[in-house]
Amino acid sequence: MIVFHPQKGFKPIIPIFGLLTLFLIPTGIILWSSKAAVMIWILVGVSAYGLISIAYLIAQKTTKYWIIDTELHYKSTFLKGTIDIQTIRKIEVNASNWLNGKPASSNTKGIILFFGRYDDAFVTPEHNQIFVNELLKINPAIEVVYIK
């Protein structure tokens, strides 16, 4: 069994904090117009950024990918599943995926696995090339595309 851990760091959470800030601006305007106490401002800000940070850290700690025989298994917080490596037809390396809710702890510099007829999964192993090499050992027919 070969285990791959996800990419580490807080770089992936920066866009999420940016969006959260955009949502908090109207909240701040409402609080300011209602003459809310400074303590409420602090509570709202700390709660919002704190909850997002905790959720991200939980996702970081629970995400992993592992290969057993010819199957790729993944687990990320509440998502888990298996992909038969023999059905993987194409891999895009260093891809970004902002819309996919697949088992990844990041949304940039990952790998999109195209398998079956119409299925895909976005994964973010710590070392993309090692991950790809292990998949190619099992299924050398996989088309690998490197995105710049």
UniProtKB/TrEMBL annotation:
Highest taxon of the lineage: Bacteria
UniProt keyword NADP, yes or no: no
One BP term from GO: bacteriocin immunity
Key words of the record: Membrane, Transmembrane, Transmembrane helix
Residue ranges annotated for the Uncharacterized protein YyaB-like PH domain, each copy included: 63-139
Membrane-spanning parts: 12-32, 38-59
Keyword Transmembrane helix annotated: yes
Protein name listed in UniProt: PH (Pleckstrin Homology) domain-containing protein
Native source organism of the sequence: Sphingobacterium alimentarium
